Amino acid sequence: MRARGFTLIELMVVVAVVGILAAIAYPSYQTYVLRSNRSEGQALLNEAAARMERFYAQNNAYPTAISGLSIVNNKTASGSTTVLSSSGYYQLSMAVNGTGTTAYTNNGPYLLTAIRSSIQTRDTICGDLTLNAQGVRGLSNNS
């Protein structure tokens, strides 16, 4: 009569199968997380563009510093010169024509860039997200 239960060989086979499945699934999961975090960068760019246009409508000029956008969230204090997305995966950078060495000269008066930070720096497929005054989206520093 055979004893009930699992043999050591059967347990080792199950552990090996689970290990192989985990080795395949984990990189896919990481890629999925990085892809889903890109929406936060897009939201940051859209909010900044709306605030740029609102500032222009009120002052007939674009702001020359990020603090002029008055973006406040749980990662950014009021009047801060550094604007982060809501979870801190992206940092906002802006270049406005005629404001020094960072002036943007192609396709419009300003260029907004969501620069990867935190864990999003691992996203080498997409890179940093850009949005210009004409609504053209693009990528930079993708390698």
Automatic annotation (TrEMBL):
Alphabetical UniProt keywords: Membrane, Transmembrane, Transmembrane helix
Keyword Plastid among record annotations: no
GO biological process, one term: type IV pilus assembly
SUPFAM superfamilies (UniProt xref): Pili subunits (SSF54523)
Keyword Ribonucleoprotein belongs to the record: no
Database matches in InterPro entries: N_methyl_site, PilE-like, Pilin-like
Ranges annotated as spanning the membrane: 7-29
PANTHER family: GENERAL SECRETION PATHWAY PROTEIN G, TYPE IV PILUS NON-CORE MINOR PILIN PILE
Record-given protein name: Pilus assembly protein PilE
